[in-house]
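Lecture notes, unit on protein representations.

Consider one protein chain, 174 amino acids long.
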Amino acid sequence: MEFVESRSSIWQGAATGLAVSALNHVAHRVSGPETQMQKKPKIVHTTEEAIDHYYNGEGEPVELGMATKKEVVRSPETKRVIQRLVKGIAEKRSSNYGVDLTKKTFHVGDTRVDYNTSCTTTKCVTTFKAFSGDGFRDPLDIGIEVGGTPYNYITWEFSISYKNPGYLIGTNIK
C-alpha cells in the first residue's frame, strides 16, 4: 500500500507556471502592478493559533498543519476504512466518515473525511479528502459567535493505492 499526497507532475507544474506567468503579465498590463497572485494561506498548528485567527484573520480560510493531517491518517477511523478497503470487505468504496480529534487537536474537534475509489483490473486508488466542510466557529460551543469571525479549513487530500481485491472496475463505486 502506498500513500501519496496529491501533487501535480513536474511537467504539469511547469505548464501551470508558464500559464500563470503569461496571465500575470496580461493582468499587470490590464489592471496595473497591484494585481498579484493570491497569497498562500495561513497554516494553523495549534488551538491558540486557531483562536488568534478567529479574532484577527478576517474570516480567511486556513490550512491545517502537518501534525493535524497525520492525526487524521493515523486515526482508528481511517485505519479501519483502509483495512476494509484493502481486504475487499468494505461496504462502500466511496463515502465519508467522521474523525474525532478533540483530545489532540481541540480546535478541529470532529471532522469529516470523504473518500472515493477508482479501480482497474489490478489496482485500486482511494483518495481521501480531510476537513470537508469544516472550519473554526463558535469557539465556546454555545451556539453563538463571541466577537470573532468564523473561517473554513482548506481540505487536504491523500491517496492510497493497493491491489484490487475483487472490486468492480470504475470510479467512485458505491
